[in-house]
Amino acid sequence: MARPAALGLSALALTLLALTGHAKGRAPAAIKLGVGKLEPIVCNNKVRVFQDESSPHIRIGAQARFPVGPTELAKALLHFSRHDDLLPRVAESKVLAVDNNKRELHLYQRLNLPVIDDRDFALHVRWGATKGRLWIRYQVSRKAPARRSGVVRVTLNHGGWDLYPKAGGKETLARYTSTMAMGGSLPMWMAKSGAADELPQMLQAMCHLARPDLPAAKCLK
After folding, report:
1. Single pTM value for the model
2. Is the CB of residue 165 less than 8 Å from the CB of residue 172?
3. What was the pLDDT predicted at 12?
């Protein structure tokens, strides 16, 4: 697995463009929202947010329609080096390694949170295409850097995206899900409420990254 510095920008761009192929192994099951205990808590004409109130962790989901095709949206979602510019809670976002053949990468992120200690984690991200959708999945990576003093390491963090083409491939219906344990001394009600409240802003930021000509607040369909 090559380091991004050795890959260069052109090779990394080719990696992100190789989204119509299949990752090795079986494709993940499609994301289902509004079933079981993952119930809607916010519904408007642009975003639907779901949450599992009974989970001991932060378990949330979302659905929204984006004004770009699945490939363009997937490239934005995988452009992790821009996430610390667009997402207020992301203080650092670094790609650690990329594998072109397996369509996977490892990244490190640190979250800057109000009042409490920062959180950080490393993620193993995979992507591919199957049965009319592009998919992205992530889980905690074993390639995490050394722990930092004063920063709480997140050890449970997994989720992903399903991207379905709409309007002849010019738009995307996106479904997202995430399960995360923040660790440390953080009241669960506060963690759940904050994550759900900030989810629409995250979707808007990803939309703006895919369509920089549109302001984030007016980007989603």
Report:
1. 0.87
2. yes
3. 44
